[in-house]
Amino acid sequence: MTAPNCPFHGLDSLWIQVAGLSCNLRCAHCFNASGPGNREMPALSRDDVRTLLDEAEAAGVRDVVFTGGEPFLHPEMAEIVGDTLGRFPATILTNGTLLTDRIVERLANAARDSRYSLEIRVSLDASSEEENDRIRGKGSYGKALAGVARLEKASFLPIVTAVQFGEEDAPAALEEFERLLSAREIRKPRVKFLPAFRVGREEERSGGYGEGDRITAEMLELLGPEQLLCSTARVATSRGIWVCPILVNEQGGRMGDTLEESFRPFPLSYGACATCFRHGAVCANAATAVREE
Amino acid sequence: MDEVSGRVALFGGVYNNHLALAALLDDAPSRASEIFCLGDVGAFGPHPDHSVEILRKAAISIVQGNYDRSVGMRRGDCACGYTDPRDNHFAALSYAYTFRKTSERNKDFLATLPDEIRLRGPRGERILLCHGSPRRQNEFLWESLSPDPFLARLLDDARCDVLAVTHTGIPWKRRLPDGRLVINVGAIGRPANDGQTHVWYAILDLSGEEPDASFIPLRYDHERLASEMRAEKIAEPFVQTIETGWWTTCLEVLPSKERACGRY
Predict the structure, then answer these.
(1) Whether A63 contacts chain B with CB within 8 A
(2) What ipTM is given for this predicted complex?
């Protein structure tokens, strides 16, 4: 079976793997197997990011998303965010455990000086400490919630993101999270659920995808490719440009050395593509996600 | 393609607010020579046929919004582009009401509206009126999520010099470094999440050296609208927005900068 191609409609979102695959946590479900000591993709320098922003500007980018690994392991993350917010809206995906008062204050200054939004997403995978720390590591719950509270105090409206593994009762889970955040005086709790991708460390846990977990040409024709991240986004890493943040460990996900080279259709031949297709664009901000009829 | 000059009134997001619509048709002719609607006649407010009939009677040119297309094509939801379950819950309530209360004749009318209207300014400016964005009827163009290079790309692709949209409900304008102009005209159907009960529309001014836009606050009898909504048993959060000027629903779609300005 030939995989259908996802067309490329133009660069709306540039993802930047700013700290490579280095992370201070080793979450059981991490789709790109980030963790302490993972050196497979070194961090990008501040100059590297500036060059990427220039290329993205030429492409008419809409927003920039920082991911990793853990972006705040990058020693110049606050400066990089400032460089970006001078030109584009930005989103940071973080585990929240490294958000000190000092870094939050610097982010708040950058956000205040910009006409563009800075969204900060903090990962928390359960509303109970025991369940969260079983997945994300001991002590991560308390540190992440402390980070959320610091962001709230600095007038950010952090979005708590949680990975859902199965057919959980989403409205009930949403209520649990909102109760937890309200109890911590988060005034406008924002929660978003993300699908689990059976790649990276999650593949070891769940057994990965089978041959049947693929997007077919008929599926793509029925719903259209617009909800797929790969139709409007690319991921920049120190090892080149990749099609999406989920496939950075797949050699087939590499699209070239430069952004321009990467602006071409992508064959949807991975199991993770089917998860993305079923659940909508990965991590798209509610505000920027669009849905065709 | 129609040529326009002087001042042009642009409004969108009627959301069944027939009282604001009537107020606009009283106010705008003294400020502008022509009036255009950028779509979404239906949504939160009462008596959807009232608004459609007012627009038909006044022979206003209307761009089709996502709501208009869904109602006109007899689709199952408003296609507003929400991704949050709570947003979708409230969107479904207002859509079901509007769909049930719009006559078949008016549904047929909404189905015939064009996706876009193109105008020519006095110096040959290419003016594009659409609902969400030139590329998607339900794309949100928020001020804080629309950097200049992105807007320039949209204008390049759509081959226009002035772009006017609505869909988000909050007005803003941006002059690009090359002089081209983007206007989000806001909505006349509900306040702009600023704690004020008035609503907004825009005047595109083509009389100066280059096109410019200003925003006009529009007062209407919001208390009467609220009582009509209650009489129609429309969900109370929608009524509170009309009474207080603060959005109570469709909030998850707001970027952090815009949401931080609101109460909820």
Answers:
(1) yes
(2) 0.92
